[in-house]
Amino acid sequence: MNRFIGFGLMLMILGVTVHGAPVLKGSGASFPALLINKMTDRYAKETGVTVTYSPVGSFNGLTELVAGRVDFGVSDVQLSESGIENSTDYVDVPVTLGAVALVYNLPGIPVVKMTPEIVLDILAGRINRWDDSKIQTINGKIKMPAMPIRVATRSDNSGTSYLLNRYVFSASSGARQIRNKWRVDVPGATMVSGNKQLVDWVLQTPGALGYTESHYAVRSNLGVVALRNAKDRFLLPNVESILAAIDEVSVDQIRTAGINSKNEFAYPIVGFSWVSTLRDQSRRNDYESAKELINCMWWMTHQGQLYAEENGFTPLPPVAMKFASQRMKEIRFDDVILR
Is residue 302 a contact partner of residue 39, using CB atoms and an 8 Å limit? Predict the structure, then answer.
């Protein structure tokens, strides 16, 4: 008997709950799924709290949160700007930073440069061949192949598409009409559901051009387009160019930062992935579960960032951590602030 009591005390000291440990449920964007799972696996080992995450897509994750089926949703779009109803009842907290990469399948051509104008023309169907004079001119001595550009876009309501649409709207100075912010409309494009599935299609299709999160692009071995930024530099998405897009951004600017940054070394299509949850946790959880959820969110946005770069992700810069800390103070259980 004493032996079991001693074992229980040891588990308590280690922070492991033997019985009744809460299970937190989340769903949402596929882009940060690997990082979130790495974080939550580690968090479970340290605390005994199980966290499940289903990569069902940004839009679906937010709708599941609003429907009360999960404790938190993860999206490349803040719930407050998603167009989903009752968004003021929720708090959005940044959890990682990423970029939208344009990927292509042109064997033997290691890098292709594009300007915002070329991207806009491709998406509008005005440029449909790789040897178009505009593409050839900007790429100089690289001989572009005489073949059609086979564009792939996401068929699902995607946070990646949402970020690309923000870039397109900015690059066109608002001239390009966006019918559905969650989808990118391209005449004659092949529609594919999911980041991984789109990357697989591009890999199998010579002459293909698509878009995906930078994490998937790096791991795919596809060519990645070097985009011209606001300072006329051509940049690939990597940790340095992604962080540069947030450099010198204040806490008050975090919500809108990342698209067409004026920083000389910034990649132009950058955005956060956000964890969203109820502002008043008493509407879904008991107090202990609500407290564990906020503790987990705090850990992910602070200690959990240690696992970002080693898994191919960009860690939150200090200004984003400060913003996350401020936002979590808005989360309460009835009138009790949880953190």
Answer: no
